[in-house]
Amino acid sequence: MKKMEENKDVNVNENKDNKDNDTITLSQQELDKRIQQALYVNSQNEKKKYEKELQKQKSLMEMDEQSRLVEEKKQLEQQLADIQFTNLKYETAKVLNNKGMSAEFVDFVIGNDTETTQQNIEKLDKLFKKAVSEEVSKRVTSTTTKNSNNSNNNGITKEQFRKMSIAEQSELFRNNPEIYKQLTK
Prior knowledge:
8 helices; disordered N terminus
């Protein structure tokens, strides 16, 4: 009975290139082997971290009291700086969200301190709004031009075209050659 359980097929969904899902079939033995490999790699990484920390602690124990205190102070200052930087990133993300911008801009605007970061946010906000405004203006102008072209096409019948003067027809030819061709067919 145990051999039958080992030979059971297990379906695993695997996403390749984020395009589509492919189903692969693995035996229980193959699946167990992959899991064991992943656990082994993870345990090796944890072991390296532990050995590194152990080495730090041993080196601290070998130092005299004054040197040890200086080294511990450096480590604590580094941890404090890391925490302050993380807090600055968090606060920056909140400010960006409040201004209606994506928190993904954090890395672009973050500075060494709060004031620099705030100045960078203001610059980005001003430039971002300007770029959006310009793009909207372009699209509105482009849409208006397209709509006016379409209304000319729909608003002019062949009969109206025939009643136009030569000057009006040539102006239509210069401005909208496609419409002119359609009306002259």
